[in-house]
Amino acid sequence: MKTAWPEVPLESLTEPDAPITYGVIKPGGEGSVRFVRGGDIADGIVREAALRTIATDVSEQYKRTLLRGGELLMCLVGQPGQVAVASESLCGANIARQVGLIRLRRTVDPHFVSYFLRSPDGVARLGKFTGGSVQQVINLSDLRDVTVPIPPLTEQRQTVAILD
Questions:
Q1: Among residues 36, 105, 43, which one has the least CA distance to residue 73?
Q2: pTM for the full model?
C-alpha cells in the first residue's frame, strides 16, 4: 500500500446525507421485498439466491436502507467485517439490523474500499473494533472510525481492474 495515499475515516467517505447505518430491526414474516441479512454476505459477495423476503409495509418503514445498487454492505454481527458491494440487481432490496449500509461518495470506488477491507490490513483495522464474548460484533460508531487509504479515483479503478 502506498504511504502517500491519505488515510481517512470511513464515515468521511460517505454521501453527505447518508451516514453509515443499519437496517430493519423487526423484519416480521415473508413478503415481496428481498432482504439481506448478515449471513448473506461472504467472500466479497451477497448470496442473492439465499435471500429471504420481508413485507413491503415493513420495508417502507426503513426507506433509508433501501438499496440502489453500488452500496457497500458489511456484516456487523456473527462474522463482522464480511463485506460486499450491492449489485444493481439488489435495487429495491432492504437490509437487516445485522448489516451496515455504507453509501460512498461518487469520488470513491466501492469495490476499491471492499478490496481494502478484505485485505490483511483492512481485516486488522476492523479487528481492533470487533468485540463480544459470545457473538462477535462491530459497532457502527467504531466502523465509522476505521481508516481507509484513498488514492485518486483513477488509481482506485486501476487497482480494482487488476484485482478483478
A1: 36
A2: 0.89
